[in-house]
Specification:
four-stranded mixed beta sheet, Rossmann fold, binds guanosine-5'-monophosphate
Length: 214
């Protein structure tokens, strides 16, 4: 399942919670200049937040169902995030999209990202930084989605996640959303221009330059 054989590319983005990765991903996904990019909707055992929809933001499943899916090898990767809930990426969805020539964007935590990197060494690994710890803390409080205990847990986890940034091949510092969108789009579009993905097309064009036999 190489991402360099004319099949789609896998793009993995990770960031500490509150770094703005979800807004960044959704803006790039709706951008008409980046077609054929599919978002992998994860399965999770956490409860939906206000405004979240099943099958759109996540597939919200009971822990028994998640465990059953682990046993059936249904996940490309999965992890227990913030020590409490499980999150996992559907293997079947990702493989079908890549085989069909679509790029797939995974918004997953660092543990899951490293599992994906093992299986797909050519995945584009993007780490999104907040401008600083203080800004991250402010963003988590201002968005008003999590209670104090959850915010503390997310901030504690952030330091560990950030220490793994050097396992990624791209860094985006999200101090300006529009700039970050442009950077993520550039990474995705540049990868599409790589030779292996275009070899078939290039050969076809070359043939049009050859004099006709006879
Ligand atoms: P949240 O609960 O805020 O939606 O997500 C918490 C964390 O779980 C985020 O860092 C998010 O990227 C990560 N996450 C979401 N889906 C997956 C997944 O399928 N696998 C893994 N490993 N992490 C995920």
């Amino acid at each position: 399942m190489s991402s360099e054989t004319g099949k789609g590319n896998l793009i993995v983005i990770s960031a500490p919670s509150g770094a703005g990765k979800t807004s960044l991903a959704s803006r790039v996904l709706e951008d008409h200049e980046v077609q054929r990019l599919k978002f992998s909707i994860s399965h999770t055992t956490r409860r939906p937040r206000r405004g979240e929809c099943d099958g759109v933001d996540y597939f919200f499943v009971p822990v028994e169902e998640f465990r059953r899916m682990i046993d059936q090898d249904a996940f490309l990767e999965y992890a227990r995030v913030y020590g409490s809930h499980y999150y996992g990426t559907s293997r079947a969805f990702v493989e079908a999209q890549l085989d069909g020539g679509n790029d797939v964007l995974l918004d997953i935590d660092v543990q899951g990202a490293l599992q994906v990197q093992q299986r797909h060494p050519k995945a584009l690994m993007v780490f999104v930084f907040p401008p600083s710890f203080r800004v991250l803390e402010e963003r988590l409080r201002n968005r008003g989605l999590d209670d104090e205990e959850e915010i503390k847990r997310r901030l504690q986890t952030a330091a560990g996640e950030i220490s793994l940034y050097d396992r990624y091949s791209y860094v985006i510092v999200n101090d300006d959303l529009e700039k970050s969108i442009l950077e993520l789009k550039s990474i995705i579009l540049a990868a599409r221009c790589r030779l292996p993905r275009n070899a078939h097309r290039a050969r076809r064009i070359c043939r049009t330059f050859q004099p006709q036999a006879g």
